[in-house]
Amino acid sequence: MDKFIVNIIHRPEMVPEYAEKVTGHGKAEDIGRKELLTENLDIFKTQQECAHKNGLKTTIEMTYASLFNEEAIALAKEHHEKYGDEIALTLLGLPCEEFREKYKTKDFCIWMFSMEDKKAIVQDVFEKFHECFGFYPESTGSYYMDAELTNYIKETYPSVKCAVATCWEEGPKAYHTCNNSWYTFMDGGPWAPWIPSKQNTHAPAANEAEDSGIVAIPHLSRDLIACYDGNGSNFGTHPQNVLRGMIYDTETWEYPYLYNLIDQYRYQAKFNNGYSYNMMFVGPGWMNKMGRWEAPYELLLKSYEDGCAYYGKLKKEGKLIDMTMSEFADYYRQKKSYTEPECALWRDILYGSKKQVFWYCDPYMRAGVNMDQGGAIVDLRPYVAKLNWPVGIGTPHIQDASYPFLIQEKYRAGYFTHYAGEGTIRSAKICHNGEEVDLCLCRTKAHFSEEILSGEEMSSKQSADVAVKNETAGIGCSGENAPKNRILTLDSVDIEFSDLTVKLQTVMTFIEGTGSIRIDRKVLEVTPAEEGVDVSAADITINEYMVGCYGTTEYTEDMSSLTLSLTKGDEKTEIPYEYKCREASLEGADRSACVVPPIETVVSMTCEGRDKAGYIKEGYAFSPMFTIGYTGKLCEKEVFTTWLNLEKAN
User: What is the reported pTM?
Assistant: First the structure.
């Protein structure tokens, strides 16, 4: 039976974000005000009660401020004994009188401090926790935890096995919807649990040597279409997110979207070997007695009670398992191999568009495929580079913790773009008699399947990883942990030209543990516009292309270090990027590639197809992109195959 697991995490955040200004009623700031501390502890009690009365255990992530409150400490101990709740420690909730007095700052995001301060803060908080409880925590977290911070915590406090480590797509979109004032950028990470690498928190570990020693979980479970297309803070399984997005009936106070979102996460078990995950991570600031997000306290309370009741109902029906964070970390390590990807075939449940997106995440890449654009790849992050990306004061990335993209349709245009230039995307064009149709214009739907990798496809490292995992789990190489191809078979589309129609099908194969995506385009049928005309040998040209760049925001980076290349045996053509709009092609090319030194990545295409020719295109200042691709010929029943490959440079 499929396993749907939920982590419910509460934190007694004595001085939650936003709340001081709301409860202060125009008074001078005072984060030690008794009313503020009392109200937020009362809300924490209410949240705990909501979970417990529905038979759900929680993880209590103690904040630094709560470690100075005897009642909060006593409550955590009581609920641990009575309900089996885990007592953990969060690096959120740092602001309190004691913290500000010592560190002389209003900063509260642990990943933005200097590394020296990060270490001092971690030591302060963890030792204070030990003083209160007599042991060190097994779980911790923040909105984001950079790799240096995670590595330091694991080295210094080895009991830690689980952490809240990133917030999915909390980047420029969130910044803009907070009136350009929310200086936290962490786009490009996993949306579901993963084992972060020692080199970069976003990028999953590919093997034991890269393993940071913790299991990471996301800060909230997001809607994987609505969040990507818009402000993620409105679209998550945190009930007050749904209220902030105004996704409820203002008269009846009902919110079917919340339950649909939870159910869609349950559905993802079909694509992940019978396992799916959800989390709800809530601080008291969201249930302020003054109300939030144009919603009164009564609605805030009702939404949280209803959310817990729905999880409780699923548990009673045997459809849900509630775990603490540390319990989940143990389960996850037994369940997943390093190279096993997380997959999500997601459909729009908010706007009625029938839009469908596929997300894929493994140690080598994160990719998003949009079926509304014919199966185009609209987001691509090269995890294979395992970028060392230090974050915080004293580093090149004080606020920007995002993992860079090669393709990102929201920040770099995608297919639908300005009259001049191009946007980042991976798609194909079908051409005939001077007419051209981009598959981005052909809406379709996808169907998911899996197949065991052949011996030729599986690397020696994969084989070793699988052998260890399967021995531990007591299963053979053909078991659920055996490396598999994840296959998207798209419904065929009809491409109409003036004298004929081409019925084309796309099959995308994500080859586990390789950093490669195989794309097959097959002409199923060619139909003439007029009866009796033989079009079986009609001249149909295909143009497989990727338009790319690199960056973490909407703003272009310096492309002058990039190099485009074509190779065929010993023959090689190169174009160093100088914004000169140059192009080159090579018949029978073995490889079309671009080296992107700033993100230590090589992206390439290889091809099997009739009359294939590789090509490269340099961009220009108004359209600072690069293009790699292949052209070739297709007839009825023929297949044209390309691979998109990611490698670490050097």
Answer: 0.94
